[in-house]
Write a structure and sequence with these properties.
alpha+beta; 10 helices; 34% helix; single chain; elongated
């Protein structure tokens, strides 16, 4: 049984436990996971013993090449009309749908002769645990992102604008083979680095600034996500190096907590306690990590607000931070894959504090 067949089987098994006759899927990443299709328009209907894949005329040949183990159809007319005919033919009465469905389409489903029932995260839960082929793709996405960063890094210096660094990094990611950029690149310096999701601006990087760079690559549809914080020489680094060291210690504490069977809340708590004990707890306001795969943010969520058990093959980030309004911030983000007794790091860039324009790297911050 190949990967697609195994995934189909897992979905069909879940349909029975959810009490639905069929599942309607329109999320393109869920469809890609279950079919291998890489186009931009499709829907899937899965019953307990059959799978139907529909796309439009533009992707007829692509679907024939990429999709197997499904009955393939071409959409003509409104999607709801195509779906109405298919549901009637199959005798479906209880139709499951993804909770990410738009309200407009949900309203259209309610007008069909079926009972629409929300099915939350059915496919997303399957996607949490990556197989060997997926991990190879994610590792390649990491390697592409790291090579792009190393190409751009010599250009990071005082006087260069945040936006320029982001644009060059985007360019080099594409040169490395990334077909898409998983998310808007963050380059935030000085006071802007106090905002975890700051957008690059025309601000010039200044001496003494922390510079947070958060970026990711892509390979075979899979994403990577990483962050490094650099320090520009020329300021008064004593307090800055101390903050960096706290964040790095929190990252290491979280990594030590990762193993098969660990709970995400405990991993988050390991990082959060280091920062809290150092007196900066109120300045770390986001979760410690998130799953990465076909989406750059997916399950599991490594947070105090969610508590999920991690299994071998789960891939997620570890990204503690401290953000001081008006002064700047530090975030260090790695990607890991869960193994039986440990976390395997997928990211390889150094974690010691690098002072740009200085003659040395400060080990451990």
């Amino acid at each position: 049984m190949n990967g697609i067949e195994a995934r189909q089987k897992a979905v069909r098994k879940a349909l029975k436990t959810k009490g639905v006759d069929a599942l309607f899927l329109s999320s393109l990443n869920n469809i890609r996971y279950l079919t291998g299709f890489t186009g931009s328009s499709a829907f899937v209907l899965m019953t307990r013993d059959r799978g139907f894949f529909f796309t439009d005329f533009r992707y007829q040949e692509q679907a024939a090449a990429e999709v197997s183990h499904y009955e393939i159809g071409i959409e003509k007319g409104k999607r709801t009309d195509v779906l109405r005919t298919l549901l009637k033919k199959l005798g479906v009465k209880r139709l499951g749908f993804e909770t990410s469905l738009s309200f407009d389409f949900y309203s259209a489903l309610k007008r069909l002769p079926v009972e629409p029932l929300p099915v939350k995260d059915l496919v997303e839960e399957l996607r949490k645990r990556k197989d060997d082929r997926e991990i190879v793709a994610i590792r390649q996405a990491v390697e592409r992102a790291e090579r792009a960063f190393l190409s751009v890094k010599p250009r990071i210096r005082a006087g260069v604008r945040e936006r320029e660094i982001a644009l060059r990094l985007d360019e080099h990611l594409k040169k490395e083979g990334c077909r898409t950029i998983p998310f808007d690149i963050i380059v935030a310096s000085g006071g802007n680095a106090a905002m975890p999701h700051a957008k690059p601006t025309d601000k010039k990087i200044e001496k003494g600034d922390f510079v947070i760079i958060d970026w990711g690559g892509e390979a075979e549809g899979y994403c990577s996500d990483m962050t490094r914080t650099l320090l520009m020489a020329g300021g008064s680094p004593s307090g800055q190096t101390g903050i960096y060291a706290i964040v790095n210690e929190a990252r290491e504490a979280a990594l030590r907590a990762v193993r098969a069977g660990a709970m995400t809340r405990d991993i988050d708590r390991a990082a959060r306690e280091v920062i809290r004990r150092a007196g900066y707890g109120e300045y770390f306001g986001h979760g410690t990590g998130h799953g990465v795969g076909l989406d750059v943010h997916e399950n599991p969520r490594v947070s105090l607000l969610r508590n999920e058990r991690v299994a071998p093959g789960t891939v997620f980030t570890i990204e503690p931070g401290i953000y001081l309004p008006g002064l700047g911030g530090v975030r260090i983000e790695d990607m890991v894959v869960v193994r039986k007794d440990t976390a395997e790091l997928l990211t390889t860039l150094g974690r010691d504090l690098e002072v740009i324009g200085a003659a040395r790297t400060i080990e451990g911050g």
